């Protein structure tokens, strides 16, 4: 070999000597292995011991070479490495490399090998083509070239901290994933690309998963497109929670904490755009948040998001079980009240809640109508809960604005179910329950049923009969004139539409009207008689109806109700005496005016 001048041969000589030394070490290691020479050093990694030879180890591991050279014991025979990244599995691969034993490098183990090589200082400073350089070459040429392999490397790095962070393996993997995702999915606009990479991301722990999403958005990925990814991740990471039934089952504290952190992180990453996620998915997240007892801010965030899309909800979406271990109501009514109040706030102030909504600033009329029906359905569903107090029932009913209720039929149904499930209520309590209903907005069918309903207070029945008589009188007046009905408040239009001026029907209605007047007159006379008997009792009742003494005959309420019901039943024979399914009327655009209080006196 022509070495040339001294200036040009020095670097070449240095390299050649290093390569020569490496070759010698390689041959020596092969010879030691082939001759079955007894080991002269034991390496303890955790609870595992490796009987090895000093020469192959110190020739490539700077860490072990330093320990041997600094030892005061010339015959050092044991070394303990307690905190090596990857544990015994990683050290075994490094030892095989020192002995020139072949093994496979793959995306699944490259992070492990790269970290242990860094820890043991297996650099080219100690041997040419050492393990650090070899693993770096694999990462650059193979490992960090696809989403699947990059995710696998990042997932493996979760157990190799902090050294995986120190050598920038974590950041490089995250950046590769973000770059390829944004490039291949055209910055998040092509949702079909989620099929082949979104599932891969679900294997990541909660420490790295949000960092990947943040890196994607930094490269231009649209936040609203994160919805499907977050749904997949939530379904996989929050699986196993029994959030469908009553009561909160005890789970291991560590698992509960992990899932709580996962849920709170997912909520913090939810898109701010309205309709980026389905209402049912938000409902599942809120159920889990209540179950796991997350922070108040996490639950409030979900409640506000759900209020923006409440028009999309179905009844099952808002039937949140109560996870209280101390009993109480079957359903969590407070959460539903919060959502409804947020919806009302949104209706009043528009888009001032901090969410992006370029399409609709205010809830549409159809949304308000849907929400009104939904809340009345909800009230009817929870009414049968025997543990639901009067104040709780009323508080839920009061969050349903009257302008959202086209008719009061569903409210009447809920009240009837509540009274049926709570037969021990006092008269005062029953009156309070019925106070949330506007009798003027009941349909004819509901009025016919209410007139026969013995669970209702007498005062409510009187109001129903009075408004029905008033409605009949108006229909007759219009029919006799033979003209279109005059303009009247919307609440009357709710009942009088669809009535045609037919002569026979007018005659029948006139007779019914006279009968009702006569029955009401009889009731008024009875009330006056009772007032004279018991002034003290009469003062405590708003309509002057009192309970007679035990030795006097009781007010024949049933006969009166029966008589009136029989007359109304001729018009509406399809209604039963106990419980009915009340059909909803057609949609109306005109809003009901403010309620008027009417008196029969």
Automatic annotation (TrEMBL):
Residues 531-558, 577-601 are annotated as: Disordered. Residues 39-107 form the BTB domain. Keywords: Ubl conjugation pathway. It comes from the Eukaryota. Residues 195-471 form the NPH3 domain. Pathway: Protein modification; protein ubiquitination. Residues 538-549 have a biased composition (Polar residues). It holds the Pfam family NPH3. Residues 592-601 have a biased composition (Basic and acidic residues). PANTHER family: OS12G0117600 PROTEIN (PTHR32370). Belongs to the NPH3 family. This is Phototropic-responsive NPH3 family protein.
């Amino acid at each position: 070999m022509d070495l040339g001048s001294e200036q040009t041969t020095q670097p070449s000589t240095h390299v050649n000597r290093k390569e020569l030394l490496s070759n010698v070490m390689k041959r020596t290691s092969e010879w030691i292995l082939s001759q079955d020479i007894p080991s002269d050093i034991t390496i303890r990694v955790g609870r595992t011991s490796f009987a090895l030879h000093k020469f192959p180890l110190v020739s490539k591991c700077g860490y072990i070479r330093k320990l041997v050279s600094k030892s005061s014991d010339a015959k050092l025979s044991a070394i303990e490495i307690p905190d090596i990244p990857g544990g015994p599995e990683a050290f075994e691969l490094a030892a095989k490399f020192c002995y020139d034993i072949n093994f496979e490098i793959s995306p699944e183990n490259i992070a492990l090998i790269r970290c242990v090589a860094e820890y043991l200082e297996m650099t080219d400073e100690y041997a040419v083509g050492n393990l650090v350089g070899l693993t770096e070459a694999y990462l650059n040429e193979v490992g960090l070239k696809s989403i699947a392999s990059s995710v696998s490397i990042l997932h493996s790095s979760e157990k190799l901290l902090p050294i995986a962070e120190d050598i920038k393996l974590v950041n490089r993997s995250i950046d590769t994933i973000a770059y390829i995702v944004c490039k291949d999915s055209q910055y998040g606009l092509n949702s079909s690309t989620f099929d082949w990479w979104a599932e891969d991301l679900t294997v990541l722990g909660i420490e790295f998963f949000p960092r990947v999403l943040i890196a994607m958005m930094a490269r231009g990925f649209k936040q609203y497109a994160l919805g499907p990814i977050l749904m997949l991740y939530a379904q996989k990471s929050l699986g196993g929670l029994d959030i469908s039934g009553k009561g909160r089952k005890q789970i291991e504290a560590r698992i509960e904490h992990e899932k709580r952190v996962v849920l709170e992180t997912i909520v913090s990453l939810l898109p701010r755009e309205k309709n980026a996620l389905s209402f049912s998915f938000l409902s599942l997240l809120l159920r889990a948040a209540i179950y796991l007892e997350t922070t108040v801010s996490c639950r409030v965030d979900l409640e506000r998001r759900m209020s923006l899309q409440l028009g999309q909800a179905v009844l099952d979406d808002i039937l949140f079980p109560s996870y209280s271990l101390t009993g109480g109501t079957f359903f969590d009514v407070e959460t539903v009240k919060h959502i409804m109040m947020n919806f009302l706030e949104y209706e009043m102030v528009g888009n001032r809640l901090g969410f992006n909504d370029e399409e609709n600033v205010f809830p549409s009329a159809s949304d308000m109508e849907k929400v009104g029906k939904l809340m009345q359905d909800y009230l009817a569903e929870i009414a049968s809960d025997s543990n639901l107090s009067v104040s709780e029932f009323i508080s839920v009913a009061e969050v349903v604005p009257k302008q959202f209720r086209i008719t009061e039929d569903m409210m009447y149904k809920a009240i009837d179910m509540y009274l049926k499930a709570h037969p021990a209520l006092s008269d005062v309590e029953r009156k309070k329950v019925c106070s949330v209903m506007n009798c003027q907005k009941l349909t004819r069918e509901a009025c016919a049923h209410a007139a026969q309903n013995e669970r209702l207070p007498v005062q409510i029945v009187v109001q129903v009969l009075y408004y029905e008589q008033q409605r009949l009188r108006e229909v007759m007046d219009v029919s006799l004139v033979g003209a279109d009905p005059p303009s009247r408040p919307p609440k009357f239009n709710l009942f009088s539409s669809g009535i045609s001026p037919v002569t026979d029907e007018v005659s029948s209605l006139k007779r019914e009207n006279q009968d009702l007047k006569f029955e009401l007159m009889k009731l008024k006379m009875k009330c006056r008689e009772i007032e004279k008997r018991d002034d003290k009792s009469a003062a405590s009742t708003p309509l002057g109806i009192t309970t007679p003494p035990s030795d006097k005959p009781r007010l024949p309420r049933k006969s009166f109700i029966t008589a009136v019901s029989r007359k109304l039943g001729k018009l509406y024979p399809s209604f039963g005496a106990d419980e009915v399914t009340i059909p909803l009327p057609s949609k109306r655009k005109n809003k009901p005016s403010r309620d008027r209080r009417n008196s029969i006196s």
